[in-house]
Write a structure and sequence with these properties.
641 residues, 27% strand, 19 helices, single chain, 7-stranded antiparallel beta sheet, alpha+beta
């Protein structure tokens, strides 16, 4: 393990990918526990892995790799923390009626009041212990107190809470009832905000990491309802599918609905937050609220609300505000100093596949781009210096795709992947307009009874085999075994490499003229897998960034456990004309359109998270982040995200 980490520190991408393969599911579960949204959590994990790969050289102790990786994940989560809410606008009369019905049916509202009357340290310990399942030792570590002190707080806190509840409810209660009510109150409060259809079932009931999360959906998991509350019962997350009929409302009315919903949840919110962005679409309008200091929005505090065309809140993501904002700097660095660094920075040619919805390109496709690490830098607002050192990347070595004899093709998808008769198909879902996702698992697998988020994710991932296929041709695109396979073999790294090459030659022969093999140091991960990278290129030495075959071979079975394939259609490669690429000196004049913009950013360290004022680069007219210079047109390509 430590040797693999050292290889990753030395810049070996394959070693890094092997390391994170075993961590991905845990990273996703942790991100989900903070964010509560599968898509956002997946984005967080991807950004975490990107930042980790860029910063591997900073890791001093290989044995702390997992801890270091999760620390980066948590830092990334801060920017998105408590962002999950597609919500229904509930009429005032309905809310009042629900509260009346609640008061008539149960007394759990007394728990919050009783908790609020306890000493602050008793409150904190009870919440951590009962809502979030922190053990005594973990609670002691979090609060920096002796274990015996935590035990004492728990004991005295339970006694005092019991007394407060007895006074409030005017009847004696048992200690077991107190423990049950601490969690039951949040479950009941969650139902104040949503109506659950009869065909929905509770999938998640999780009390962890500063929130209680509940999720309902159908068996197909097509459209879910989610509610998240903080330990005091305040709404953090509310998600529901939009209605398909109703009365259309204007954009002005939509904003009034968004404002009303926000202040109904957080009375003072609009005293600190203001609408910074409005994006109007055919079926919905997005309102982004931010807290401005000195004319610039803070990075840590914002709310996103999306209102449907029928006046429903279908996305509400709240991230608070601060009553103690950072101070404005009186002296700032000259932007000219920063822009001079841009002009002097090295620019290199690369090839990217860009999607028109994400970048300023006319249509999705291949684009030659001159890019530089300088565009990803942030600059100190006082002295204009870059805020992180550019790492010296170790250049990878490549060779031609080796000649191997293809095998006879298996006829079924299951046989290609290795799915056995003891496994059954769990689901087949449409992932996008061209891709189907298929999942298999052993037929006698037992789902965990607990409805925590972690167990929900385990139910979705543990011991599964997942594949993606073309919707129309059923041609295999990728698959991954999340179930460990072991055998009696002890194959060498070279033998595993030959198996990977043979698999590509058998099922993806048409790609071979565009493939190279990345030369790696022999290594296997903890699951006995060796990984091989086959990058795609359009001309000698001009690889397409991120487009490659990535194959994991199990040395004890000789089976393929992991396959990722390129997204690019071969017709695009066949038709691409490299002669249109201009030399750098012909397009470097585009840098005149670069500018530096002030922004507040999160500065994380071990003890605190501060907002600091920084410069970032962007296009002068649009302020959008620069990706690079189009090597054909000489125009900036910027990100729309």
């Amino acid at each position: 393990m430590e040797q693999l980490v050292r290889s990753a520190i030395d810049g070996q991408q394959a070693a890094f990918e092997q390391l994170v393969e075993a961590e991905k599911s845990k990273l996703l579960a942790k991100a989900y526990s903070y964010i509560g949204n599968r898509e956002d959590a997946a984005d967080i994990v991807q950004e975490t892995l990107l930042q980790a790969f860029k910063s591997m050289h900073q890791l001093k102790e290989p044995k702390y790799f997992s801890t270091w990786l999760f620390k980066i994940l948590i830092r990334q989560c801060f920017a998105y923390l408590q962002q999950r809410k597609r919500t229904l606008v509930v009429e005032t009369e309905l809310i009042q009626q629900q509260l009346i019905e609640q008061e008539q049916s149960m007394n759990y509202e007394f728990v919050h009041e009783a908790l609020s009357l306890l000493r602050k340290d008793y409150q904190t310990v009870l919440i951590l212990f009962y809502f979030y399942y922190f053990k005594v030792q973990e609670t002691a570590y979090l609060l920096d107190k002796p274990i015996n002190t935590i035990k004492m707080f728990l004991h005295r806190g339970r006694i005092q809470l019991k007394k407060q509840l007895e006074q409030s409810m005017n009847k004696p209660i048992k200690q077991k009832e107190v423990i049950h009510m601490l969690k039951e109150q949040l479950a009941k409060l969650a139902l104040n905000f949503v109506s659950i259809p009869d065909n929905y079932q509770l999938l998640v009931e999780d009390y962890s990491k500063e929130q209680a999360t509940f999720m309902w959906s159908t068996d197909e998991l097509e459209e879910g309802i989610e509610v998240s509350l903080d330990p005091n019962g305040k709404l953090l997350d509310l998600t529901r599918p939009p209605s398909t009929t109703g009365t259309l409302v204007t954009m002005q009315k939509q904003q009034a609905i968004a404002d009303q919903f926000l202040t109904a949840q957080y009375t003072e919110a609009l005293d600190y937050l203001a609408v910074s962005t409005i994006i109007e679409k055919e079926d919905e309008t997005k309102f982004l609220y931010k807290q401005f200091v000195g004319g610039y929005p803070l990075a840590s505090y914002y709310t996103k609300i999306i209102v449907s065309k029928y006046g429903e809140i279908i996305d509400f993501k709240y991230n608070g505000y601060t009553k103690a904002p950072p101070k404005i700097l009186t002296q700032l660095a000259s932007k000219d100093r920063i822009l001079q660094q841009v002009l002097k920075a090295p620019w290199a040619l690369s090839m990217k596949y860009l999607v028109s919805g994400n970048y300023s390109v006319a249509q999705s496709g291949l684009y030659p781009i001159y890019e530089s690490p300088i565009v990803y830098q942030s600059f100190n607002a006082i002295d204009g210096k870059t805020l992180f050192e550019e790492e010296d990347e170790k250049e990878a070595s490549f060779t031609k795709f080796p000649y191997v004899q293809p095998l006879k093709k298996q006829k079924t998808l299951e046989n290609i992947i290795g799915v056995t008769d003891c496994m059954g198909k769990l689901r087949e879902v449409e992932m996008d307009e061209s891709t189907l996702g298929i999942v298999w698992r052993k037929k006698d697998w037992q789902a965990p009874k607990d409805k925590s988020l972690e167990n929900f994710l385990l139910e979705r991932i543990e011991d599964t085999v997942k594949a993606k296929v073309d919707k129309h041709s059923r041609k295999l695109k990728e698959f991954n075994w999340f179930k460990e396979r072991t055998g009696e073999l002890e194959l060498s790294f070279e033998a595993c490499r030959d198996i990977a090459c043979t698999f590509i030659a058998t099922y993806f022969k048409e790609y071979i003229p565009y493939l190279q093999l990345q030369i790696e140091e022999p290594s296997f991960n903890e699951m006995n897998r060796a990984y091989f990278t086959f990058p795609l290129y359009v001309a000698h030495g001009l690889q397409i960034e991120g487009e490659r075959f990535y194959v994991g071979v199990n040395k004890t079975t000789g089976f393929i456990d992991t396959l990722w394939s390129p997204r690019i259609d071969l017709k695009l490669l066949d038709s691409y004309d490299c002669a249109t690429i201009q030399p750098l000196e012909n397009v470097i004049s585009a840098l005149k359109e670069a500018d530096a913009f002030l922004q507040w950013s999160c500065q994380y360290d071990d003890n605190k998270n501060d907002e600091v004022l920084q410069y970032r680069l962007g296009q002068s007219k649009t302020k959008q982040r620069i990706v690079g210079i189009d090597a054909t047109t000489g125009q900036f390509i910027v990100s729309k995200l």
